[in-house]
Design goal:
64 residues; mainly alpha
Length: 64
């Protein structure tokens, strides 16, 4: 892994987002996916990334 975060690619951020999803860390996955989408030049691809990792604070349901 690189030491400079500026050297990370959209693919690096997506890999990390997948790892955070597997670790049940949806908010971190969302943040990493947002960064991946920001680094993607194709708007359709960026929209797909954002759709795959929605903001968990807006999709979370409360339980008793």
């Amino acid at each position: 892994m690189t030491r400079d975060p500026a050297d990370l690619t959209a693919a690096d951020h997506l890999d990390a987002a997948r790892e955070m999803t597997a670790a049940n860390r949806p908010f971190l996955a969302h943040l990493l996916a947002e960064e991946a989408a920001r680094r993607t030049t194709d708007p359709a691809t960026a929209a797909g990334i954002r759709a795959a990792y929605p903001d968990p604070t807006t999709t979370r349901t409360e339980t008793d």
